[in-house]
């Protein structure tokens, strides 16, 4: 049922774009008419011609007059473009600037859904899924490298590198050329924080991102697969979104169903050149034991980021306790 709601909402958003593009065009026209009297006059003449033509409908020479009007419109249009350029405006300044040039923000091309409509449906589906996520978005600004200060210099440098790589990944994200990332390291070292900071930047830039723990997503897929929630389309969304973030990989309950789902998701995304980020607390041997070589070899083809440090949440708690003690 919610898929229909998503479809209706996507159509509503696209219609809103169309109305907004038309309103902007009207505003530009009013502005130009006030600024350039020649254009206001051209506009007036054009309207008068249309009115006089309307009166001749049904008469003998109707066809002839329509032809003349078309010629007149064409030359008026050319003149209008010339005047705009003379006044320093782009020649298409008074055209309606639709966001989608394929469908002029109608959502359909030749009766079929336009790619912008399909994309909007995907964005809305991802939003809906993320609303049920166990995770909340983070930002690079709230990530502090000071928690890694006590590490040996080479490990500290590596953490600085990882931070910079993640920031650059987020800001230079490209659907087909961005790497897959595998973040490895103990709990509380910042893997989730950095992944969700990447998600925040991508969402701000209009990409569709899905982020959740693997356990939560697998539970949804199971419910849909075994018919307890038959109207969901989680698998499609996981395969189609621009970036998929799978957190806490390895803590889910592994069954033959989850193994096959994980393989399908990772393999399909690699084949479709759609990036993913996987975070895990497990070491390579444990991953191999849990998922086998087939999944492991696909996972380890990603760019690997090894996290170092002491549990940040634990460090924060110690700091809080110390400052409380100092106050009392
Ligand atoms: Zn379109």
Segments where pLDDT lies below 50 for 5+ residues? Answer: none
User: Number of domains in the coordinates?
Assistant: 2
Overall structural class, as computed from helix and strand content, comes to alpha/beta
* Morphology: elongated
Q: What is the succession of H and E elements?
A: HHHEEHHEHEHHEHEHEH
Describe what this molecule looks like in 3D:
This protein is α/β, with parallel strands linked by helices and 328 residues long. The protein has two domains: 104 residues, no CATH class; 188 residues, 3-Layer(aba) Sandwich (Rossmann fold), CATH 3.40.50.300. Helix content is 59%, strand content 9%. The protein contains eleven helices and seven strands. The strands form two sheets. The chain has a five-stranded parallel sheet, with helices on both faces. A two-stranded antiparallel sheet has the order 1-2. α2 packs antiparallel against α3, α5 packs parallel to α6 and α9 packs across α10. It is elongated. The mean pLDDT is 90. Bound molecules: zinc ion (ZN). Zinc ion (ZN) binds next to loops.
